[in-house]
Design goal:
Blueprint: H1 6-15, H2 45-51, E1 61-67, E2 106-108, E3 111-112, E4 115-116, H3 123-134, H4 141-176, H5 183-187, H6 194-208, H7 213-234, H8 242-245, H9 268-278, E5 294-300, H10 309-321, E6 326-329, H11 339-351, E7 355-359, E8 377-378, E9 381-382, E10 386-392, E11 411-414, E12 418-422, E13 426-430, H12 433-450, H13 456-465, E14 468-469, E15 473-475, E16 483-485, E17 494-495, H14 498-511
Parallel strand pairs: 1-5, 1-6, 2-5, 6-7, 7-10, 10-11
Antiparallel strand pairs: 3-4, 8-9, 12-13, 14-17, 15-16
Helix pairs in contact: 3-4, 4-7, 9-12, 10-11, 13-14
Amino acid sequence: MKTNSTLSLVFLLFSQFAYSQSSSEAIKNWQHDDPATENFHGIATHTVYSNIDSTKPFENIIVAVIDGGTDSDHEDLKLNLWTNDKEIDGNGIDDDHNGYIDDIHGWNFIGGKEGDVGGDNIELTRLYKEGKLKLPKNYKWRTIKKKYQKELKSNKKNYELMKKISEMLSNAEKITGKTTLTGAELRAAPVSGTIIKLLKKQLANVLDQGIEYSVLKSSILEGLPQVENALNYHTNTSFDTRKIVGDNYTDLNEHNYGNNHYAGPDALHGTHVAGIIGAIRNNSIGIDGIADHVKIMIVRAIPDGDERDKDVANSIRYAVDNGAKIINMSFGKSYSPYKKAVDDAVLYAQSKNVLIIHAAGNESSNNDKDPNFPTPMINGIRVNNWIEVGASDPRGNAASFSNYGKNSVDLFAPGLQIYSTLPLNKYGAESGTSMASPVVAGVAALVWSHYPKLTLVQLKSVLLSSSVAENTMTIKPGSRKKTVPFSSLSITGGIINAEKAMKNAAKITQSHE
């Protein structure tokens, strides 16, 4: 989980209000739209299912969701969860002798006998805590120290800024005597400070565009604990949760630790990701996932903070060893002190023909220059089982927060205001490359389930060649006005399209029959 500067925080705060219809039925589930015939620039899921020959054989594809936890009891997910039929639930015995007790739907690598990890440091803080003498050789102490101090300062600023925004809304409500404000009423509220004045103006403009005040306010109130956690956990040098796990953290060859608590303290992110891929289709409740023949394996390894390389490596190996054909990884960070452990796991996945889909990150930055770990580059060579995904918006532009990279990001996929499952049988919209990555994972599972004879290399080729090249200009992520060719932001220059992927898969399959 990469952290955000104050500028990035502002972009993320306003990105979900980019469209006046964002809270209406008109844009809900827009990722399924066909850009050729429907309102928004989705991936053409509807078109695919209208043409699928249901009489043809298929295979269930296991997709591992390595994330922060998933609600295994969700009404729109539980029937599509992977189940380890070699394990007897609740007997406290490792029946299948895979090293994990009662791993019925997956495993949690950031839990132990005493509970589960919630918040954690970011990797920069961990490196800073190592000190000058213990710092890994590939990092410079002065650089780490300077960046940590800058990050700590930024987190303090973000927290104060979010508090001021929350106070501004409360004061405006008191002045007007109302709990729901218009743009004009918010604009008239007295505030001090250049940044807060600018934000007040933008928030008022958002209300003018038709966004409900309650939606705007709840988003801000949700953001406040996030920046508070950044102070309490991410950059707090006295905070350490590894004792909860109970492993020997320095032993990178240690694999058998954790528990089977699939949800953890906060399963929002992982539940949302899982639903995008494989929420039960056509059951008249909730939403429809992208893939129709999929089983979701839950692998918990991502805290509220930066994931640890050891846990990521073990999560990949667990997924591969237990039958996953696709792994979705909607996380990333700026530093990877034990990258080799992750690299070895990625190479292991490649040797077993397992496809990895990874989110490019939400810092509006160029991954060609600033890598978002983990990466597919191992000893200067790019592995062939990896797809890096940026986020697009409903109009077919790059999302303002999305990372990009002409040589490092493969393609883009819908990632703004994506509606999906939330814990406790709820549903809602979230934004990020974290949402774009499972869109691609869903398409991959859809294609592979209907064309199971495709090799890993063929499947990846099918997905990349389905990317619809966008010969348009888009506002460069991180910029307010500067435009660039959309094609300059990724290797394929476009957005994944499920209909085109299915057609490409059919052609390859027919040519080999």
